[in-house]
Amino acid sequence: MVHIRKGGCGIPLLLLGLVVVCQHVVLPAEAAWHDQASPELVKQWAERLGKTLSDVSRKVTRVADIKKMYKQIGASIKKRDGETLVSEIKQNIEEMVQEKMDAVKCIMKWAEEESYVPTVRWEDLILEEEEDGDMFRYRSSKFSPLGDEEEFPQPTPEPPLNYTTGIAHYRKKVPLVYYQPLELEPDPHFFNIPVNTSFSTVHVPTNVFDRAPEVIEAIQWSKKLDPVFEANFRADPSLTWQYFGSAKGFMRTYPGMKWKMNDEVDLYDCRMQPWYISAVSCSKEVVILLDTSGSMTGMRFSIARLVAHSLLDTFTSNDFVTVLAFSDTVKTPIPCFQDMLIQATKENVQALKEAIDNVPIEGYGNFTIAFSAAFQLLESYRDGRGREGCESCNQAIMLITDGVPSNLTEVFETYNRFNETGEMQIPVRVFTYLLGKEVTNVREIQWMACLNRGWYTHMQSLEEVREEALRYLNVIARPMVLQGDQHPVVWSHAYADFQDRKVSQWLKEVMGQHMDRENELAYTQAEEDRRFVIGADHESIKTRKVQQFQLMTSVSIPVFDRFGNIRDNTSVSAELLGVAGLDVPLKMFLEKTKPYQIGVNGYAFLVTNNGYILMHPELKPVVQGFPRDNFNSVDLTEIEMVDDDTVEARQPNEDTLKLRNSMVAHEKGSILDIKIKFALDDQRRINVETRDFFYLPVNGTPFTLGLSLPPNYGTFSIDVGEKFRKLEKAGITSANYFHGTNWRVHPDWVYCRYLHDNIKNFTTPEERLMHFFKKKDNEEEKWKWFSDPLLPLDVESGEEDHSCGRRPVPEDYYYCDEDLVLGLLMEAKAINNWFGTDEWVLRDIMNEREPVEHFNITMRFVSTHAGLTRWQYVNAMSGTESRFGDFNNRAIDEDWYKATILLHEESPDSILFNVPFDAGADPDQTVTAFTAVYHQDGGHEVPAAVAGYKFPIHRLQQQLYKITETYASPSCTEKAGSTDLCGCASEDISCYLLDVNGYVVVSDEFNDTGRFFGDVAPDAMVALKKIGAYRQMVLFDYQATCINQTIVSSGAADLFLTPVRWVQGLLSYMAGQFLQVAVNNYMWSPVDAANSFYDDYGEEVSSKEAKDDDEDAARPVYTYTKVESDPCDKIRLLALVNMTSKDEPLVYEDPEPEILSFTTVEPVTEKNVESVTDDEAMQGDEPEKEVQEIEGGVDGEVKYETENVENEDNQEEDEEDLATEEPTEEPFVFRSRHVSFSPNFISDSTDRFLRVESLDRPIDMTCRNMAET
């Protein structure tokens, strides 16, 4: 808390302004004011300190000298047009996209050709048995042993007789299948997972019998795809996983690998994956009719629930669905989904599943009103009332029931028969799922499906559900197969590779080393998420010993059976063979955007056809170490927020809606001058900047490319001039500018690389860059910036072309980005004279020694536009400080780099100061100063670099005290008899240096350093807001995660509390035994709880002390903390300093003494959201007194109650409490103050970028996450 003496003045200082807070005392206010510090004196202190720090920065960073060097080496400025730049980026992305689509089309082409089997083979296979051993061998991803081929393979076991009724005809003799051994080696290109690039492996899910003859046949012919996989990889070495998902249920994956199962039930089915489902069916609009009449009790409804769950799992974000539960009435299990189809996002599907589990079973089944409601809902969407257009959509009704009592011909004739064009049209398919063993009126329910272009299925047990639920996909795909010519290429939404079952366990195993925290180095949360989740530079794994996760998308294409009619001439078949696909890391899209060309505070992003973010710098797949479930359904309007003073959640601005709708519609255009607010530093800082947006569709994909640029400095960029190009051609030795080890390049940018990136084992990006520099400087190498383009492959007649006309890439092929590398060399030369060595040698001629010794400056650094970061130390240092570049190597992508440039735009030649948020806990903490380096040419200036330095915080405090003592008030000096007791050293004055985010940089109490000033002196922050020094800002975080913790005990005492619990326990036991049997027989799996885990600690509690050999001793009870993470929305209350006049200080004086009561309101969570209205969610409990909206808060988040002060004695007692107590549940009581704000505190050394500590809380989501976008 602020330490304020009785009768004195608290004087907080801001880096943008000086604040003087004077307490009301018995003496006249003016006398107290002028006796300590007048506004003019405060202004004088500010100017003196600003001049001192500005002079130090100039001498230490050598900014002026660096600017001169840029001019000497001929750096130029070129104009950058947003429309031209976004077109260039689009072309780069489309070239990469076309390469991936060519690869997947090649797999499809060969799969359709190799699938031809002249005769019906499975009967022959059964008779021939093991005569041809190779015919029954395959490499299994699950069961193949690791070892040499000479090892004897193990055959598959005999299937149980009751395995499934679906293979009852295989209970006769079935062939043996042998598993071939796997020889695997870790490959850095595949994230150090053991693989073999000479063959593929086959995964067969538990619900598929790999000894079924038709499965054997498909496995055998698909083995011929291995040469295609290899040819694709040779032609495009950037490819990762390639696969073929068969309609029979198995998946062939290249390169070959072993899945880590960890003794768990394998329920992964490729046919349930989004890349498969999206390829075999267009967008779907589906109504699931769930019979909840009285006859559905017991096992039938258990099957019905599982059928509904399985069907919901087959929908993707391109589909719209709802569930109607019916008996004698029809209702939606979730009220806010009434009369609408909702998008089948993961959270929406999960909500529907939970609602289905809780629907009551009662009444009789009225099928007429149920079908009528379903048809009417789908008709409204066809007519465009519910959603614009869906000509290619498949509309379907899926009925789940135990029987149909009557004929429903009239309903179908009314709603599903149209003859507008002279041909009968049936717009809605009907799929029926009959449940139970004893059923009646089977012909009626069969007729429903067959006459309405659907499919009928009869299921009698749980184990049949998963397989039977997938059959409707082949029916929906038939029209596409029948036309035969067009193969739609489909791109999926973003997903994380740790969600991919084939590699998830491998990644978790390597990710376990993340607990070592990279030799106990501490990262910020944003940096930790970026390093360990978002990024994916496999070459740095060896140094960090931590596997990075990465975001992916998939491209897939359907594969048709073109020979079905040849095998059986009695009927015309239209069968689907499966889907071919491959994974594409999103970092490939990012690399093609060439961020260095976009520049600081600009970025490219991708939006899907649903308005969801595919790639964006603000996309957060991980929050506080927890992977988010719904990161791939984050809408563009949830990230791009307009500064329009909106204080209500989920109220997007018209400009962002226009931008979103245009990008969803795949349009070309631009929207200029949008004022965007955005956060930095783990959303603790906020700023506002005008941005221009440009967008173009990416051909061949459902994605639209967007580009955001600042309209001023974003329209120009620094360029390598002709003068430097001539110097480079004359023979610059590149390695001369990269001496020592204290330098880094941007780890995510591609300077140079081999196309086969696994042929050279580079451990760091710097090592890779130096390799190419040596190659460039070697005259014998005949250097080229990139290898010659590959010509199409000439295929001789009769030769099989598994690469589909693409030439293999030689191993020594490489690529170097000429513009980026030349820019790096130019900037390295520009800073070489001052930052070219690891140790900072102080030179008196440069006047460096005096400021370094005076402030005890320990190091300085510079980071350039081309991604080079160099740092120097005054003396040889060790420890974490010597690894500055490991934490600050991303140049223009670092938050401090962005903030420094923004500061320069507001106040040229200013200095940004920053201290760690936990600086008060460490007396040796340093303050960091940043200043921008701009290059000027032709009347324009552009950001070229950011330079800075570090020094102890206490040295800054000493300088502040010295200035205030030297220029102290004459009246104070006369009264005290010495300047030592005036200024900040006075007992009556407390001084604070604040950054413009409101965080304490210097304080009398060191523990306050790094804290938000509103926590230190709340009344002063109130006054600053009232005089307009700070602007309150509301930032909604729609990507937050709410962490719920539950204590779980192993004790059994609860069972004895009531007889009801005995009954409950018995029923739970019976249900559990049944489910366990189902799982053990590979029938069914419980609902996935992927976001639930247990902490690694437990507390052992014993009811009594156990004794040796005492059989009655109580068993120990273990308690665990169960932690669950759920997506939620949060509101962040931040503040931004207002730019005010520099002529006169701002003064606030409240003549009416009053007490302000500070109240914190209970957060609104999803658990109680149903019982809280929107107003209550934002306001919380109504206070008894009048509420004022002040101090960076929305009403309900932070409240102040106003009371009249009865006497001065009470005020003084309250003031003493404020000085000694930390915030508690009781209100804080403090007095009003006189406040003086001097805006010209450090005219040359201002921290323009403002952050205010906020109280994060979940806000009312209602049905937002579950409703249609």
Automatic annotation (TrEMBL):
InterPro entries per record: Ca_channel_alpha-2/delta, VDCC_a2/dsu, VWA_N, VWF_A, vWFA_dom_sf
Region forming the signal peptide: 1-31
Biased composition (Acidic residues): 1172-1184, 1203-1225
Membrane topology of the entry: Single-pass type I membrane protein
One Gene Ontology term of the molecular function aspect: voltage-gated calcium channel activity
Entry keywords, A to Z: Calcium, Calcium channel, Calcium transport, Disulfide bond, Glycoprotein, Ion channel, Ion transport, Membrane, Metal-binding, Signal, Transmembrane, Transmembrane helix, Transport, Voltage-gated channel
Pfam families referenced in this protein's UniProt entry, alphabetically: VGCC_alpha2, VWA_2, VWA_N
Keyword Isomerase: no
Name of the molecule in the record: VWFA domain-containing protein
